[in-house]
Every structure is written in structure tokens, then in C-alpha cells.
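INTERNAL AUDIT FORM
Audit reference: QA-55
Scope: verify that the stored structure record matches its stored sequence.
Auditor: D.O.
Record contents follow.
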Amino acid sequence: MPSSHSAMVVALTLSIGIQDGFDSSLFAACFVLAAIVMYDAAGVRRETGRQGQAINQILQSAIFDGRPISNTEMKEIVGHTPLEVFGGFLLGVVCALVWNI
């Protein structure tokens, strides 16, 4: 907590908006990039963690049934919660404002 990726792209986007204007094409491109990164952090990467949990449950079930497959568990916490992404967003805003004002 918070998402460092979200913080970085929000700080970049806000800094570009402050320096080049919020109507510039560079700001628009950074805004789209920030939206994609935050969506990925909250959605796609979090779903990967859920899949890891399901696979670990399958492995545990197989071990309890007497058919050991592997003794190594997969990493379950890969993505961020929406709160962590929002925390990264806020941190990015603060960093951009401190840097540019």
C-alpha cells in the first residue's frame, strides 16, 4: 500500500498537465496510460492473485488426498486492492503538486 505504479503514472500525468496544459495531446496520452495502469493494477493483476489462491487450494486438496503434486505454493498476492490503487492515485497527486508548485 499504496500502488507505486499508480502513483508514478498519476504524478507523471498531473505534472504534464501542470507544465504543458491539461488540453495538450501529451496530457491526453498520459491520462490514457494512467487509466490503463490503474485498471491493470486493480483488475487484471488482482485476478491473477485469485487464480493463484484457487490453484493452491487444488494443490492442498491433492496433497490431503494422498497425491502430492508440489510442495511449493504459488504467490497469491500479485495485484492491488482498489484501496491500494486509490492510495497510489493520491500519492501521485501529492508528489506532482509538491514537485511542480
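Auditor finding: record pair retrieved intact. Residues 52 and 75 are 6 Å apart (CA to CA).
Action required: none
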